[in-house]
Amino acid sequence: MADYDVVIIGGGAAGLTLAHHIGEVNERRGRPLRTALLEPPPGPHTPPPRTWCFWEEGDGLWEPLLAARWRDLTVVGADGARHRSAADPYRYKMLRSDDVVAFVRGRADEHLDQRELFVTGLSDGPEHATVHATDPRGADVRLTARWVFDSRPPAARSGGRTTLLQHFRGWFVRTPKEAFDPESAVLMDLRPPQPSTGVAFGYVLPLSSREALVEYTEFGRSVLSTAEYEAALDAYSAAIGLEDFEVVSSEQGVIPMTDAPFPTRVGRRLFRIGAAGGATRPSTGYTFGGASRQAAAVAEALAEGRTPIPPVPYRARHLAMDAVMLRALDTGRVRGSDFFARLFAGNRLGDVLAFLDGASSVRRELAMGLTTPVAAMSHSTLDHLWYVLRSRAGRTGRGLNGAGGSSPR
Questions:
Q1: Would you say the pTM of this structure is higher than 0.85?
Q2: 25: which residues sit within 8 A by CB, 6+ positions away?
């Protein structure tokens, strides 16, 4: 018999959410699932505390832990035009990773082993998979499990055409006097100087009337130095009228935005979840919502005794549209500030969030497409279709003109 029913590698958003859902499944099952959550010991491999933002309808799983939630959202164009509206039926929400860690660990029972290990390799098998690891003292450890879910950050993927980096630095600020509206968040402020390709923007997520996360973000091919982020944040803070404030803490990160494929099943008993399993929406960098849907679907399959293949959280047509948008931004065919300003100015914010969550209809998506730079996006769409056709022809060994290519028999 295997050591565990389930092994989860990584204690980020995807791993923690799956561990929590399995705990709920165990309350419904006659035989609880023996589960291990593997993380490296505290040190250089431990990610710093961070925030996770997402949107959903009504109250969700993490409602008691929310740092903040907002009904009204604002997008500011490069020309200063403000577009504010309710996000109905959604609420935009923020979680702190430390709060989720404490909650999941605090609720863990005897059926969840939390182990500090460095995972060095995985091997598949017909009856179980094997996790190869070392403990903090350097001793080799081998664990077997019916199912293994790997949520470690993915390596660079091949097979895609375009990869941009969403890179950012944010300040958690505190002011001596009231300076923020806790009921409304600035989702995207496009007034910062724009790069030649991609897009740059700031945003403001109030935690109270005197506290907020103020962040500077770019979509582009390369990251900035910390000094460059600090200069951009100084300039953006001045632009929004923040003069007297204290920086309580900061966060910084990089999220790949790519049209490369991320398979969720990589063996008979090996799976990838979270960003490693395609939970990141390529056009936005948002991951938490997709990872949450994956975890819920996996837990339900485990509860019903089915093979727990994590679903890809986004429809094929949405991923195709994301590939077009990434290409348009990367080539400079569209100005990012113009694209996003038109999108949010011409559509209700709730409809845009539904599209970004994969819950929109084709009819609504077509209507939204007409509010973006149509000529440039049409050019990029045709360019993408030509690329897909050439790629398929290359895989089948046939040219697009119908001439057959040679292939081994």
A1: yes
A2: 33, 299, 300, 302, 303
- In the numeric block, which tokens belong to residue 3? 């050591």
Biggest CA pair distance of the chain: 76
Structure letter (DSSP) for residue 350:
H
The DSSP bridge partners found for residue 129 are 145
Question: Which helix (H) or strand (E) is 9 found in, with range?
Answer: strand 4-9
Say which CATH class 4-156+259-304 falls into. Answer: alpha beta
User: Rounded to an integer, what distance in angstroms lies between the CA atom of residue 366 and that of residue 118?
Assistant: 47
Rg (CA), the chain: 23
Question: Could you read off the pLDDT tens digit of each residue along the chain, which spans 409 residues?
Answer: 789 999 999 999 999 999 999 999 998 877 899 999 999 988 877 788 899 999 999 999 999 999 999 999 999 999 999 999 999 999 999 999 999 999 998 888 888 999 999 999 999 999 999 999 999 999 999 999 999 999 998 776 667 899 999 999 999 999 999 999 999 999 999 999 999 999 999 999 999 999 999 999 999 999 999 999 999 999 999 999 998 999 999 999 999 999 999 999 999 999 999 999 999 999 999 999 999 999 999 999 999 999 999 999 999 999 999 999 999 999 999 999 999 999 999 999 999 999 998 899 999 999 999 999 999 999 999 999 998 888 888 777 655 444 333 332 2
Domain definitions of the chain by residue range: 4-156+259-304, 163-255, 316-396
DSSP tag of 406: P
The CATH superfamily of 163-255 is D-Amino Acid Oxidase, subunit A, domain 2 (3.30.9.10)
Place of tokens 């182990």: 115
